[in-house]
Amino acid sequence: MEKTFFIIKPDGVSRGLVGHVLHRMERRGFVIERLEMRQATPELLREHYAALVDKPFFPKIEEYMTSGPLLAGVIKGNRVISSWRTMMGATNPKDALPGTIRGDYAQAPGDSGGIFNVVHGSDSAESAKKEIALWFGSDAL
Is 23 a catalytic residue? Predict the structure, then answer.
């Protein structure tokens, strides 16, 4: 079975959407293997978003992702990486279709540029391994 990493971002937590998102995962047949409510540190986020650190919009991401608690976790299931990404919907909420998590729950971007999009999911098996190890340690693999 494949594993992937996910985050319910601070907007999802503060708006009371954790149960809705977890319910969709379970209804889809994914197994929730690990969950942890935590406050992200700037250091952790710089590693997680290493490819974006030099981008002009990164300070907004960092500010947002440290603005409140988030829920980080690991789910497993058949083709869970691609399935979870489909369930999340397009990164930019204005492009996310109804029925997806972002299409149903994310708020259309204003000055945020789409970062208030409720959830994150690894985009590949390599990213999943890296993100799981980063957030939970290599024993979680």
Answer: no
